[in-house]
Amino acid sequence: MVDAAAHTTIDFAKASRTALADQQLRGNFRRAMDGLMSKRAVQFADSREWHAMRALGASVRLRALSKLPELLEKLEENCTRNGIRVHWASTTAEANAIVLSIMQRVDTRLVVKGKSMVSEEMHLNAFLEEHGIEILESDLGEYIVQLDEATPSHIIMPAIHMNTKQIAHLFRQKIKDAEYTEDVARLTDLARRVLRAKFAAAEVGVSGVNAAVAETGTLCLVENEGNGRMCTTVPPVHIAVMGLEKVVERLEDVPPVISLLTRSATGQPITTYVNMITSPRKDGERDGPREVHLVILDNGRSNVYADAELRDTLRCIRCGACMNHCPVYTKVGGHAYEAPYPGPIGKILVPQIEGLDRRGEMPHACTMCNACVEICPVKIPIVGIMGRLRAEAVHPSSAVKDAGARASRTEALVWKGWAAANASPLAYRIASGLAARLGNMAPSSLPLLKDWTNVRTKPRFAGRTLHEMAREKGIADV
Amino acid sequence: MSDARTSILTRLRASRDAHPVTVPPSDFGVLAGMRWSPEERLDRLRTMMEAVHTEFLDATEADWPAVVRDFLRAEGVKTLLHGTPIAAALAAAWTPGAPERIAYDQPVEGFKERLFTGIDAGITTTLGGIAHTGSLILWPTPEEPRLMSLVPPVHVALLRADRLYDTFWQAMTENRWSQGMPTNALLVSGPSKTADIEQTLAYGVHGPKRLIVVVVRV
Ligand code: SF4
């Protein structure tokens, strides 16, 4: 299913037009994003502290990237010493196979899962279901999305595209014996009832990782609901999946990363739980999983790492703040991107992972307003990378998967002509004179011009060029 | 999948060597500079935790078991799960009419059903608190297992007033956590909560619905 789709080009423009026409959706996003932005702003009201924390956070992430291979080895060594089994996967298919083989060995029927974007990237749920294993999302937002047979529209708030009424209808429809209620506390209680029984019954818990500490072999997870703790404590087996960039060097690197993460993501000083897991259940301990597995996934990240400029993409701590502040994301919402990671981080990460053939449009879904760069807690030059990917999309190179996929002969010719016209005063005069006199006759459907006139009115050319008008005014030397 | 391991690490090493990164030093001064006086620490912790629906009780070294007992009785709690470190102190203060005390003294496998359906509250000690974020530090042990602070609908946490740190960073560096992390270490900053339905806060989604911090003054 996933592989068949891998060769189709995703049409963001079309999906975004549909999203823009959906007033309900736009209202849901607008309200949510305004709330998240103002809460974050309160957290970082002290600009000196913000700059210092941000510099610290960026340096922690940069330092981790500067020693990435060594830190991953050290993480493996320390995890192994602690009793955590480490697995490596080059592709999502390999990662899925690893997860499945662990589950089959312990004869799993039911899995509970905490929020994990990497598992979305793996399409793990669909994969396991194909193999007859029931996997239940336990984060409330993810649970809602799963009931709705949809995908998350935000990396932190998966069900942000829905309002209470919509969720009330969904619960009424999909949960056995559920009454219709728009009371959020009662809806939450409904989900609690369903999921409690599942936590107790599941043989395996799956989670993501927010930061993995090389120095101690510790997996850190942040969450508010307690479902992450349930998934990593109650079932006899815990499988954590992480992208290979999630490692940090030292334990003391964790506090700044977590502080920046929770404050940027939801405007909370800290999440309700910071869960640090360093080993499976030891002799004499009364609970906790008997087995803990860590799956380290590459899926194109080592390719991202190979380019000195694009590498900065891997600094990301997945706070989602860039989404909340993006003028495009906040209008079209997460689903229009049809990608596991939407918004600014998605626009730079997904094309690099999936290739510019399929995802070449994503880096163009950007106004270059720089809002994401200004709030990114680890100072990723998102817009610079976006520009680079636009260039990569039209120039064959080995830096990015499917670079050059969007190269267009027409566009190349037009630019050649433009360069020639600007290189000679005579050619320039002729070209601009022609444009002034005949430009208005050009049909809107002309290639290239069409891309503009699709969504904007066609500009009207003045009858004379600027140079001609300036000369009339007596301005010399033009 | 050791093939994957070799190929990933080889690629990363080659790329890193081709384009080494110069890293600015990590200046932890911003965290080291966050300091409060002992009284301010408690006030701050309390204000922050109350803002997310944590409840507080004041007690002393001598009377905390009685404070806990009276509170639970008044709240109609029928069963209290506890570990061994405070079993004797609770037993000494217990009176008829107080909740039934249940010790978590066996592996969860034989106890799951009861833990998930038959227990109203769990009581644990803490390693201390953090003023900066309003958090409790928990290091579960064989004597005080992990699920005690998660599964029962009410979590009672004992916090000694002289064990307050300024920041998470200070707590871990001063106590050299990096030299030996436990199976599971936790920060807990309130009762379980969610805002996944239209950004509306709701408490007690999967973990405890109520968190009661008993501040034990010394
Ligand atoms: S790119 Fe920056 S702002 Fe966006 S999710 Fe990553 S860390 Fe957060």
Please give a structural write-up.
The complex is a heterodimer of chains A (478) and B (218). Helix content of chain A is 51%, strand content 10%. Chain A is of the alpha/beta class and 478 residues long. Chain A has three domains: 1-31 and 308-406, Fumarate Reductase Iron-sulfur Protein, Chain B, domain 2 (Orthogonal Bundle), CATH 1.10.1060; 44-299, NagB/RpiA/CoA transferase-like (Rossmann fold); 409-472, no CATH class. In chain A, strands 1-10-7-4-2-3 form a six-stranded parallel β-sheet, with helices on both faces. A four-stranded mixed β-sheet of chain A has the order 8-5-6-9, sandwiched between helices. In chain A, helix 17 (343-354) runs parallel beside helix 20 (382-394) and helix 21 (409-423) packs across helix 22. The relative contact order of chain A is 0.12. The model of chain A is unreliable at 1-6 (pLDDT under 50). Chain B contains seven helices and twelve strands. Chain B has a six-stranded parallel β-sheet with strand order 1-12-7-4-2-3, with helices on both faces. Chain B has helices at residues 2-18, 29-32, 38-51, 64-74, 87-93, 112-117, 168-174, and strands at residues 55-60, 79-82, 100-103, 121-125, 128-130, 135-138, 154-160, 164-165, 184-188, 193-194, 202-203, 210-217. The model of chain B has no long low-confidence stretch (mean pLDDT 96). In chain B, strand 10 (193-194) and strand 11 form a beta hairpin. Chain B has a single domain (36-217), classed as Rossmann fold, CATH 3.40.50. The chains are: A alpha/beta (478), B alpha/beta (218). The interface between A and B is large, with 104 and 81 residues. Strand 9 of chain A pairs antiparallel with strand 9 (184-188) of chain B, so a sheet runs across the interface. Iron/sulfur cluster (SF4) is lined by residues 264, 316-322, 344-345, 376-378, 380, 382 of chain A. Residues 264, 316-322, 344-345, 376-378, 380, 382 of chain A line the site of iron/sulfur cluster.
